[in-house]
């Protein structure tokens, strides 16, 4: 018996040593692959950064008189664009010269973007508290049947999580890319942050065709269909709308030599605020082959965004940041694009004072394009059935497993009790899958909480128990609930009398997380 125990201990030690070796090799291989990828992007960055610096807008930053109001889009509203920035004529001229110089440089001798031809994939940015949110979104996306690879860009190695980047994400056909590895190739280069990361992630991705998704956004259907259908096949750039009318400063049109009421392009002859909604950039579809220059100019707008172009393009309205830079760049270069016309819809819950939204729904661009091509614009009053929901953007508050039940969280009501987050408006909730989608989302929140409990070093224990409560509430609308069974089969169990203080059994569909699930599921 002693010999058997000794042999058993040696076997366990060898297994542990093997696991450590595998993880060490995986990390080294990941760094090696990242280094190979980074080298080509470093070459591009070493060519592009001097162009950015040579075209610096040598002018004062625009001064705000006040922030633009966030007014809902109405194509019948012909009020002129707000004019809330102050910039001297000398500064306008200086910015026009810098902008013209940059456009000339990228038109005549653009640096070559490095990507694998004939590839397509997903791109996102995350790090820190956004990593768990990203994992939830990616698992929801995989439920659609999508196998598209994803590249997740982190700002620096400080945001790198070995377990997430080497184990969790690769299991979902995703990998981490560290932006600082590329950007630091230029010593003493200007730092970028927050909204600026998005366009740089798109530039440094390895795919020719990309669908960018915010960390908190996911598709309800396999998004591969978007790449092989109109409007993308002819336009090369597809965006989705925000709630608001545009608030671009008239000064911007002067700077890019496109007065908003003059020019050859018909759109430049109309009031820009009546043409389309402002842009919500949580989802963006782009071909780097056809829209290299658009991407480079958008990068210019973002590089000098906080100091100059963000205020010029939004004037302090809701969501000021990168969101308007992509269409602005395409328009300035006269390159094609399509913005979905079907209005974005908010999803949330009713409150004593009205409505508390936490999520946005965006619509199918194929169906929208089929309507607008026939001149049927629902935004302008056409009485035709709407396109189907395609994206869900769970934007605020975030459903981070560690904080989802904190005060002011998405499932905490005005009295401090727990509530469902997606119950209104009825037509939108029903259209995007309602309770079925909500249940699936909570399953993935639980999966992620279990997967990252140790890795993220976050206190998610109490959250895991409360997730069981939320599942109980959702399932209470049915006659039955799902319970995990040791033989990995579902068992239907009669629902007991609904009790908000009780914890219901929850179902986890991955053998690896049974232990976690077992610790935190309590039978009511």
UniProtKB/TrEMBL annotation:
Q: State the residue spans of region: Disordered.
A: 262-281
InterPro entries reported for this sequence: Alpha_mannosyltransferase, Nucleotide-diphossugar_trans
Provide the species name: Aspergillus niger
| Protein location | Golgi apparatus
Q: Which family does it belong to?
A: Belongs to the MNN1/MNT family.
Q: Give me the Gene Ontology terms describing cellular component.
A: Golgi apparatus
Q: Name one GO molecular function term.
A: transferase activity
Going by the entry's taxonomy, the superkingdom of the source organism is recorded as Eukaryota
This protein's UniProt keywords:
Golgi apparatus, Signal, Transferase
Q: Where is the composition biased (Polar residues)?
A: 271-281
Write the protein's name: Nucleotide-diphospho-sugar transferase
Hey, what's the signal peptide range on this chain? 1-28
Q: What is its main location?
A: Golgi
* Pathways involved: Protein modification; protein glycosylation
């Amino acid at each position: 018996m002693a010999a058997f125990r000794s042999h058993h201990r040696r076997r366990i030690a060898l297994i542990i040593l093997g696991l450590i070796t595998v993880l060490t090799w995986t990390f080294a291989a990941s760094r090696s692959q990242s280094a190979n990828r980074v080298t080509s992007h470093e070459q591009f960055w070493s060519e592009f950064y001097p162009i950015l610096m040579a075209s610096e807008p040598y002018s004062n930053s625009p001064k705000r008189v006040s922030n633009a109001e966030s007014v809902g889009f109405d194509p019948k509203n012909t009020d002129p664009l707000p004019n809330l920035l102050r910039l001297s004529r000398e500064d306008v001229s200086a910015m026009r010269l810098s902008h013209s110089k940059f456009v000339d440089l990228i038109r005549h001798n653009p640096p070559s973007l490095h990507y694998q031809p004939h590839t397509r994939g997903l791109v996102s940015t995350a790090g820190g508290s956004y990593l768990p949110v990203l994992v939830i979104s990616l698992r929801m996306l995989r439920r659609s049947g999508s196998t598209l690879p994803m590249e997740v860009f982190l700002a620096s190695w400080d945001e790198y999580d070995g377990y997430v980047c080497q184990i969790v994400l690769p299991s979902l056909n995703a990998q981490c890319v560290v932006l600082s590895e590329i950007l630091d190739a230029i010593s003493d280069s200007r730092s970028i942050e927050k909204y600026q990361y998005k366009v740089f992630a798109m530039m440094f991705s390895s795919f020719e065709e990309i669908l960018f998704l915010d960390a908190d956004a996911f598709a309800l259907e396999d998004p591969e269909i978007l790449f092989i259908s109109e409007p993308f096949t002819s336009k090369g750039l597809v965006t989705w709308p925000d709630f608001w009318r545009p608030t671009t400063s008239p000064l911007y049109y002067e700077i890019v030599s496109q007065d908003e009421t003059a020019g050859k392009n018909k759109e430049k002859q109309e009031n820009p605020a009546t043409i389309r909604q402002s842009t919500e950039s949580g989802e963006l579809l782009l071909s780097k082959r056809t829209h290299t220059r658009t991407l480079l100019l958008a990068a210019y707008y973002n590089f000098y965004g906080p100091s100059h172009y963000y205020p010029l393009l939004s004037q302090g309205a809701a969501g000021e940041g990168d969101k308007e830079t992509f269409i602005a760049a395409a328009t300035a270069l006269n390159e094609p694009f399509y913005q979905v016309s079907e209005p974005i819809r908010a999803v949330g819950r009713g409150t004593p004072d009205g409505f508390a939204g936490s999520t946005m729904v965006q619509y199918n661009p194929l169906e929208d394009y089929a309507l607008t091509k026939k001149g049927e614009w629902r935004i302008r009053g056409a009485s035709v059935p709407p396109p189907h929901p395609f994206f869900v953007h769970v934007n605020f508050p975030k459903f981070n497993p560690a904080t989802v039940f904190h005060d002011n969280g998405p499932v905490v009501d005005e009295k401090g009790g727990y509530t469902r987050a997606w119950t209104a408006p009825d037509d939108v909730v029903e259209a995007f899958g309602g309770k079925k989608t909500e249940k699936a989302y909570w399953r993935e929140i639980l999966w992620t909480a279990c997967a990252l409990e140790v890795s993220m070093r976050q206190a998610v224990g109490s959250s895991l128990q409360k997730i069981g409560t939320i599942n109980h509430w959702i399932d209470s609308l049915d006659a039955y609930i799902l319970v995990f069974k040791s033989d990995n089969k579902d068992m239907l169990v009669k629902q007991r009398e609904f009790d908000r203080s009780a914890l219901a059994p929850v179902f986890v569909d991955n053998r690896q997380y049974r232990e976690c699930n077992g610790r935190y599921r309590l039978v009511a």
